[in-house]
Write a structure and sequence with these properties.
It holds the Pfam family adh_short. GO terms for molecular function: oxidoreductase activity. This is Short-chain dehydrogenase. It contains nine helices and ten strands. By secondary structure, the protein is of the alpha/beta class. It has one domain: 3-Layer(aba) Sandwich (Rossmann fold), CATH 3.40.50.720. Helix 3 runs parallel beside helix 4, helix 4 runs parallel beside helix 6 and helix 6 packs across helix 9. The chain is globular and about 50 Å long. Bound molecules: NADP nicotinamide-adenine-dinucleotide phosphate. The site of NADP nicotinamide-adenine-dinucleotide phosphate (NAP) has 32 residues, from helix 1.
Length: about 270
């Protein structure tokens, strides 16, 4: 039986994947905030005895570390790690731990999960990590001297930085295990999800329109399910089923080393 972890597995595309894997007979670890949503999902999908809920706020470094420790303690092998937790903040928000919430949710927690679960993933015959995000990055998008946007914050710059950082994380992860498949995957078009977040009126209106015209989460993740079934080794990016070219930077290795040094330094504070 495969073991699949889905962060953000209580709603939207994450929940559609959880439903799929429960119906397929796999073991699923769902990381999210709402126990109520998890219970509802399991009640309608069935297979509750193969589903486990790990309640966590992944914008917390301590909680992200607890999730890793908890999973490592109870499992020997992870076949797929799907990173789909999302909470859109258009404004800078500092958590009780003193860190910028979106940077932790969209990068630091993924970094902790990817590195902390690397050994369990390596125990799988064809391990796969999926970063659910809009594919495409800009090489110069990371400010290592201001990772948490203390000097200046813009939603677009913060989003671009997270996307680039997750691509560099993929370089590190696939270098550590060449059998690993690291996929950056986004839907081919807007999806009728919960659009969890703290939006301005204009963006909330846009999300509502997407909610009306968007594709169902189950239809949106169908191409992703096919990719996870037969994961190509190394790094790849897709929009739906369509490959999207990766954007190599002029010096990815040096950028990765600078990023990891800055993140490790901030985690040791
Ligand atoms: N929807 C689209 O059209 C679209 C398009 C392109 C890319 N994407 C990307 O696809 C991914 C999934 O999006 P979605 O729209 O399907 O998701 P969604 O419906 O907004 O659901 C978000 C999920 O993330 C969880 N979550 C939120 N904050 C969390 C936190 N602090 N800690 C742990 N879990 C947290 C939520 O858990 P609870 O419900 O339990 O709080 C929920 O399960 C995102 O990365 C998004 O950027 C979406």
């Amino acid at each position: 039986m495969r073991t699949v972890i889905v962060t953000g597995g209580t709603d939207g595309m994450g929940a559609a994947l959880v439903r799929h894997y429960l119906e397929a007979g796999d073991r699923v670890i769902v990381v999210g905030r709402s126990r109520e949503k998890f219970d509802g999902l399991v009640a309608s999908a069935g297979g509750g005895e193969r589903a486990r809920f790990v309640a966590a706020d992944l914008s917390s470094i301590a909680e992200s570390r607890r999730v890793v420790a908890d999973i490592v303690n109870d499992h020997d092998r992870i076949d797929a790690l799907v990173l789909a937790a999302s909470y859109i903040r258009q404004r800078r928000h500092v958590t009780a731990e003193g860190h910028e919430a979106s940077w932790v949710l969209f990068f630091v927690s993924k970094y902790l999960l990817v590195t902390g679960l690397a050994e369990l993933l390596s125990a799988a015959p064809r391990p796969v990590i999926v970063n659910v995000a809009v594919p495409g990055t800009k090489p110069g998008a990371i400010d290592v001297d201001d990772l948490e946007s203390e000097r200046a914050f813009s939603f677009a710059a913060s989003n671009a930085q997270q996307r680039r950082a997750n691509e560099l994380l993929g370089i590190a992860a696939t270098a550590a295990d060449p059998r690993l498949s690291y996929l950056t995957w986004g839907p081919r078009r807007a999806v009728r999800s919960s659009f969890a977040g703290d939006y301005t009126f204009a963006l909330r209106l846009g999300a509502t329109v997407f909610g009306l015209i968007g594709e169902s989460p189950a239809a949106a993740v169908a191409p992703l399910v096919a990719l996870i079934e037969n994961p190509p080794a190394a790094r790849h990016a897709y929009r739906g089923a369509k490959p999207v070219p990766l954007v190599p930077g002029p010096d990815d290795a040096a950028d990765l080393a600078r990023l990891l040094a800055a993140v490790d330094e901030s985690l040791s504070r």
